Amino acid sequence: MKKMLCPQCKIAAMYVKNESGERRLVYVTEQAEVVPKNPEETLEGFDVSEVFCLGCSWHGSPKKLVRY
After folding, report:
1. How far is CA 52 from the centre of its chain?
2. How far apart, in Å, are the Cα atoms of 3 and each of 23, 26, 63?
3. How far apart (Å, rounded) are the C-alpha atoms in residues 15 and 28?
4. Between vectors from CA 64 to CA 56 and to CA 6, what angle results, nearest 5°?
5. Cβ distance 51 to 34 under 8 Å?
6. CA-based, 20 to 30 A from 56: which of 15, 16, 40, 62?
7. Is the separation of the CB atoms in 17 and 46 below 8 Å?
8. Model confidence over 2-59: pLDDT tens digits?
9. Are 53 and 64 in contact (CB under 8 A)?
10. 8 A C-beta contact, residue 6 and residue 58
11. Using CA of residue 15, residue 1, residue 60, residue 53, what is the dihedral sign?
12. Is 16 exposed, middle or buried (0-12, 13-18, 19+ CB in 10 A)?
């Protein structure tokens, strides 16, 4: 699986949030699919329409990430 990168700092590590503000670590595939970093976790209840970069202040649509 190729991971998409933050357009600002070029790292692949992202997270998503749920309504309670909890975070779940994720990656985004080339098809803009948001997948959990830990395969045993689920993204049920998390908003996958917006991802947040762990390395900088960037956040936005998974479709705005870049290839390496």
Report:
1. 6
2. 19, 10, 12
3. 10
4. 30
5. yes
6. 40
7. yes
8. 999 999 999 999 999 999 999 999 999 999 999 999 999 999 999 999 999 999 999 9
9. no
10. yes
11. positive
12. buried
Which one, of 9, 8, 59, lies nearest residue 26 by Cα?
59
Residue 1 has what pLDDT?
78
Note the pLDDT of residue 50: 97
What's the one-letter identity of residue 52? F
What is the residue type of 31? Q
pLDDT on residue 68: 76
The number of helix segments (H) and strand segments (E) in the chain equals 0, 5
pLDDT, residue 57, reads 93
Provide the whole-model pTM. Answer: 0.93
The residue type of 27 is Y
Tell which residue, 16, 21, 24, 9, has the closest CA to residue 48. Answer: 16
